[in-house]
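@channel anyone free to eyeball this complex?
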Amino acid sequence: MSIVKHEVAEHFHSAGQESSSAKLGMWLFLVTEVLLFSGLFVAYAIIKSTNHEMWSAASKQLDVVLGTVNTLVLITSSFTVALAVRAAQTNKNGEKNRQMVGLLFVTILLAATFLVVKYFEYSHKFHVGTLPGSYYHFDGIPFPNAHRFFGVYFLMTGLHGIHVVIGMIVLTWVMLRARKGHFYEGYYTPLELGGLYWHLVDLIWIYLFPLLYLV
Amino acid sequence: MSSMTQAGLVHEGEQEISYLRAKKGIWSWLYTIDHKRIGVMYLVAVLLAFLLGGVAALLVRAELFTMGKTIMEADTYNRMFTLHGLAMVFLFIIPGIPAALGNFVLPLMLGAKDVAFPRLNLASFWIYCTGMGMALFAIVSGGVDTGWTFYTPYSATVSGPVVMMTMAAFVLGFSSIFTGLNFIVTVHKMRAPGMTWGRLPLFIWAIYATAVIQVMATPVLAITLLLLALERTMGIGIFDPALGGDPVLFQHFFWFYSHPAVYIMILPGMGIMSELITTFSRKTIFGYRAIALSSIAIAVISFLVWGHHMFVSGQSVYAGMVFSFLTFLVAIPSAIKVFNWTATLYKGSIDLRAPMQWALQFLILFTIGGLTGIFLGTMGTDIHLHDTYFVVAHFHYVMVGGTVTAFIGGLHYWWPKMFGRMYNEKLATISSVLFFIGFNVTFFTQFILGSRGMPRRYYNYVEEFQQLHQISTVGTWFIGASFLLMLGYLLASLRTGAKAGANPWGARSLEWATQSPPIEHNFHEIPTVQEGPYEFPTTVDGPAKA
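replying in thread with the prediction:
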């Protein structure tokens, strides 16, 4: 096990300038992600405030147990990715490469678990017909336009699910680089930024879970 | 800038290999991560979009030359004005100044080798091209007639490639976000030693404020367009009232992006103005700090005024009053800029070469555009003027009289830097005069038409409006001639233009400290900045400090 020294890109004058630029860029990107979801949160708030009873009746169709399991799964994955960053920060000569790879692997595995649980939730809804818009064919909710809840539900969780998949791709790339010894105490920007992205994916779910399952 | 001579950045007499010739072949352009080459590619792309939107505008005005049908059917006309709006807004004005001119000069002005994320910059360009391709595909596969605003419920139900067109705007939004993100980080992290915030050229301040809006507003447009596409394909009931949705919610979402987007369009133009006015008055800018901070103020307030587009959409009167008040508020920082530019001209040594001609046009036309905005921000008068030609004239005075004249002024200003050649000054003067006449003939008549009740977007009109419509149409021919002439002399200058020195205008900011066209890495050594960007050696009242 050893490490590969990082070389600063030509247009930067120092490693500090490079990493702080990357970090600022990532934070700005996360701002755009939050704003992307904000449109959905506003739509949620407006429909809920004008259709209160329909909303809570429709919300009862969701499986709180599976939602809770998924919440715990994602929180754990945030923890393991944070540990991976910590491992990189204390990695001097590659002695923590294996640990980093292992933690990232567990994170990706947890992400996959989340998606598997989501798959079971979705297929149940396809089965009973609690679907968005014109695909809605469920008659257990005694309110008009209950399809609107499931429109918002599928949009929010679907967009979040896409982010989970992207996160898995990013973390896999980071894991492969960690295996080659690219991350050590002097350089771990991609791992740190990948971790930040993963925390955001987790954080969005932490808002989605109570708003959709528990109201 | 005194550092220019001290650091010996310009090697007189020995012209080195420029960024244009540093690498050869088409792939060296398409895969380049050099901000200057990306800027030039963006310039070509946005000018093509400008041509497309411009031809559509000429056709729209030609159709309106007589009552009833002149050259096209009503359906074609609706698609034509939608095409004009979409091409001009999403493909030309929004990326125009930041992505084309900004990309080229921002790192040079900061004294940096490149933007912070060169590959993201290239990605932004290719995403832009993808969006443009999708928009063109939507146009050739039937076109859309929703207007550029895509208002629901019409856009959710009408036939045509609306989904493709909204997805094109969605994709273009990402190109805009990436450019903005890149510029914010570049301004924060890539400034040369000594380039403090108080020494940034005002163009940078303006681009920075623009980038903040691009990053903060565009994601909301993205999700709005996604919701609209899903409303059309699946009927999710967010916007369509037939499914329980709220069409005014679409307007809120749309204008939450699109009103700040108006400032994405005008702020960079204001930045160019600050550069042109001081350089061609040979005088330090008056009120540096006020101009810099007013850019930020505009960016902040721009997020709080979207409701003034919906005074008659059924939002509450109280909301309308608040939005009306906030709209007046945004006039203040804009006026601060106009006053400061005017004060800069005072006792300046004014040089009326081409870039300055466009700057002075901006000053006049933007002021008219800005003041007529107050009419529309006032609820009482807006109810009379809403959706009339008065609105069309108002925003064309701001967008064309403001942004486009600044863009053209900036293009003439940095052209020698970009390509190392001077253009024909006489033809440039003819072109700018033609534009000024044509623009006012076209759009001032529209103020009159609008105040008399001519509704915007209509295919037909009553007889009493015909004369004014014809005057307006004739004006567009002058504008068309002006731009055709410009295209001619600019292209000719690439072959036959006189060689431009490093600093043909005697400007003081850093982009003029390197040769024209610049070398691939901009500077031999990173310059050290010792003073502000507008310290001209001789001023009438002595060196004024900002």
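from a first look: Helices of chain A lie at 15-50, 52-59, 64-89, 97-128, 147-179, 189-214.
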